[in-house]
Amino acid sequence: MTLEEKLKILTDGAKYDAACTSSGVSRISGKDGMGSASMGGICHAFSGDGRCISLLKILLSNACCYDCAYCVNRVSNDVPRATFTPEEIAYLTINLYKRYYIEGLFLSSGVLGSPDNTTQMMIKALELLRNKYKFYGYIHAKAIPGTSPHLLEVLGRLADRLSSNIELPSSRGLKLLAPDKEKRDVLAPMGYIRDRHLHGGASEGFVRAGQSTQMIIGATPESDFQVISLTQRLYDKYKLKRVFYSAYIPVADNSLLPALDSKPPLLREHRLYQADWLMRFYGFKAEEILDESRPYFNEFLDPKCNWAVNHPEVFPVDVNRASYELLLRVPGIGVKSAKRIVVARKQRKLDLSSLKRLGVVVKRAKYFIDGAAGVKLRAADDPAAVTVELIRGENARQLSLFDDTDVGALPIRG
Q1: What tens digit of pLDDT does each residue of 15-27 get?
Q2: Per-domain residue ranges for the chain?
Q3: What global pTM score does this model have?
Q4: What is the DSSP string of 81-101?
Q5: What homologous superfamily does CATH list for 3-29+36-222+236-246?
């Protein structure tokens, strides 16, 4: 098998990992244009300073000894198999880097024989890059569940970030669809990385960019509340940098899984990322966003707006007096605009026009703040009417998908 043939197979097999975002574009310029975009193997990620960087996203191997029902690379699936040598991975990375196609590497793998054997091959590839080719670019590698701690230590000193994918939101789902895996094996690398960081591991060059994980959404019947509650526990207990969510794409005809012709739950994935953002940057807890009585996201409102219309007792908020933490609870006010408000109101009293100049999305915020001239409808007075107005104003395109929906009859709670 040629290197090009391997590359096609092993970039295609890596596309289901959502720990970095795939470009998803294949385009060749015409006679009058310049540049081209390639779908295979190139993904986009964001650095700590906000820059978008391109990574070579590949598998070491798509041969796997596990039979996870949701995975295209499962051992029982009849697909072409390929495995890179460590030398081939190093060669590809360096050559693509020299041609300015990429700035780093995202390396994952099926379980080739055993977790330790797979990790040893990944280590050899990264050692070639770091030591032989003196490659100092960004490297994200997968911590294979079940890997011995001493190998995880070596891998963590070579990679900038490690991720151990939890994959399914519950132990029951994991036992049902991935009988070869144990929850403790998935969580063990997370615990090891956390403990090393607590004892100065990052300053010693061990996983300096922290760790992340991924959950597949829609393959098993957990509620949105169960998913974000697990996310909250992962952030609190294992100090993860990111939890990624991947809407399940049907790849197997299995009675335990959604039908092959079913659509991936993309709106649900989007809502999870919105809720995740609220937990990481806005001070929300999972139990504030959803609870046992309303375990699913509102289909028509984002989680922050949905929380606001369900808590009219909090509003209206006086933007000239409210704390920074309370400002973050107002729909239409983000982290940057809240910080700007705190600074600007020391100089003058703020009104709607000045809030707009500070970056506030006034068409949302006006229902929840005090002193907004000309706005008669308030969430505190009529949350149901505000809900309808938000849906009409913010989701007009989304509502076009539901032509028969009676907007006025929509419930407040999600």
Answers
A1: 777 655 433 334 4
A2: 3-29+36-222+236-246, 303-409
A3: 0.86
A4: --B--HHHHHHHHHHHHHTTS
A5: Aldolase class I (3.20.20.70)
